[in-house]
Design a protein that fits this description.
By secondary structure, the chain is α/β, with parallel strands linked by helices. It contains 13 helices and 14 strands. α5 runs parallel beside α6 and α12 packs antiparallel against α13. The protein is globular and about 60 Å long. The two termini are 38 Å apart.
């Protein structure tokens, strides 16, 4: 028997929960796409995107998902035959590398596993030995599959210490608007992100951000796609060139509202602090459950854990029935496992704690997971909810 007759709760690591305010902002007639309010709205969006990314650089909006802006970023600063160093701590780091390979870019892969952050000192060794072939370093801030959060600031310092010229390109698709990120202060040259996670908007638009160093690289890069080319989008002669055609009007309305909530009302540093506390509440609960030995956080070191998503793994239990119980009986949708390393998808579930989230939703989800483990007789330690509540009330 299903007990779920209310609103389902989606705790997937994107698409995240969409605020009613965002949905209501999108629920309106089509605007004039040639002149008027839409142009002013778009300028406000670009300004607020800079504030979220902590940059004075240029954001570019594409009608795309995150996989698309992987390609957009590469297309603008690299070309076939160039070489990149790609750092991976999960499936999505490998995904960006695969896109580069398909575009004819030579990829040198540094795989740091799926349980901890990459080692910046090891990256520096590779760059010191490089003879000038490596044009860019590709890194993922938070890999959504493993929930490893990587230290981008340390990576920048390591690159600088070598004196290497490579661009630093960072995937913030899972982390932007959830975790501290300082594009300018950390010296990130190109960043990519999507709207459907920390920015709380339905999937459909994604972004690149780039600085002056990336502009210079772009000027010397042959473009083969007018759609991905960011130059006319960032310096348009007329408005439609920002989108290489018709703008994604209703996504813009939703994005405008979401950014007002994050930037103008809550404040981005408060957003980071909220995500940090809610993430620590999840970890407190999972670490208590882990005392029985059946499940645990994939990332053992708290310093390497993401504030946006927590990946839970099991060496002994098939977690597929727990997925099904939570969804079918209770109306809680957890993130499916994306297999990595020694773990198959059925040994994994992911808790997304990103975007429009509060303690009622978070504690409700944790209570439901615990109820599911009890119903399915999955061993789990006691005191998880008390531990999570203690974090939230501190």
């Amino acid at each position: 028997m299903s007990l779920s007759q209310g609103r389902d709760l989606f705790m997937t690591p994107g698409p995240s929960v969409i605020p009613d305010r965002v949905l209501n902002a999108m629920h309106r007639a089509a605007p004039n796409i040639y002149e008027g309010d839409l142009i002013e709205t778009t300028e406000g969006i670009l300004d607020n995107l800079r504030k979220v990314a902590r940059t004075t650089g240029d954001p570019t909006i594409y009608i795309s998902n995150g996989h698309g802006v992987w390609e957009a970023a590469l297309h603008n600063v690299l070309q076939a035959g160039d070489k990149v160093l790609c750092l991976t701590t999960g499936i999505f780091g490998n995904g960006w590398a695969n896109v580069a390979t398909a575009m004819g870019i030579e990829v040198q892969l540094m795989d740091f596993g799926t349980g901890s952050s990459f080692d910046a000192a090891e990256v520096a060794k590779i760059l010191r030995a490089d003879t000038g072939e490596i044009k860019a370093v590709l890194a993922t801030h938070t890999d959504t599959s493993s929930s490893v959060s990587n230290d981008i600031e340390a990576l920048r310092k390591a690159i600088d210490e070598t004196g290497h010229h490579a661009l630093l390109m960072v995937d913030c698709i899972a982390s932007l608007g959830c975790e501290p990120f300082e594009m300018d202060a950390w010296g990130v040259d190109v960043m990519v992100a999507g709207c459907q996670k920390g920015l709380m908007v339905p999937p459909g638009v994604a972004f690149t951000f780039h600085n002056n160093k990336a502009v210079q690289a772009s000027e010397n890069t042959k473009k083969t796609s007018p759609y991905w080319n960011w130059t006319p989008r960032t310096n348009p002669d007329i408005f439609y060139m920002r989108f290489n055609g018709t703008p994604p009007t209703h996504h813009l309305f939703g994005l405008d509202e979401a950014l007002k909530m994050l930037v103008d009302e809550e404040g981005i540093q408060n957003v980071w602090a909220r995500h940090s506390k809610q993430a620590r509440a999840v970890w407190a609960a999972v670490d208590k459950w882990a005392e029985a030995g059946a499940i645990r956080c994939n990332v053992s070191d708290i310093a390497d854990r993401s504030s946006a998503v927590t990946t839970v793994v099991s060496d002994t239990v098939d977690l597929t029935p727990l997925h099904r119980w939570c969804q079918d009986t209770a109306g809680l949708v957890l993130g499916l496992g994306i297999g990595f390393g020694d773990y198959e998808p059925h040994q994994i579930f992911r808790i997304g704690h990103m975007g429009h989230m509060n303690p009622v939703m978070l504690l409700g989800a944790l209570s439901t997971i615990e109820a599911g483990m009890a119903a399915l007789q999955i061993p789990h330690g006691e005191g998880a909810l008390t531990a999570a509540g203690r974090v939230l009330s501190s």
